[in-house]
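Sanity check record (used in CI):
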Amino acid sequence: MSILENWHQWKDFLGDRLNQAEQQGMDKETINDLAYQVGDYLAKQVDPKNEQERVLADLWSVASPEEQHAIASIMVKLVENNGTNQS
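Expected output for DUF3243 domain-containing protein:
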């Protein structure tokens, strides 16, 4: 099963990557920009594997670039307390 097929595993995966970026000193603006780039790539190249991803893809497809940046920023906030290294 792909990590993209399970929403909770996907959030944990993103949370782990976010924790790694923060531990390496990456600032919030850079993290949000990378989240935007990942979101844009996923929206253009990857078929959603679950209901949550379908909603995000649909929102992304109708959003302006500014709104897409906001979606990416919200996703960063959503996974801040996720990840396999969290208690």
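The chain has one domain: 3-79. If this sentence no longer matches the regenerated tokens, the check is flagged for review.
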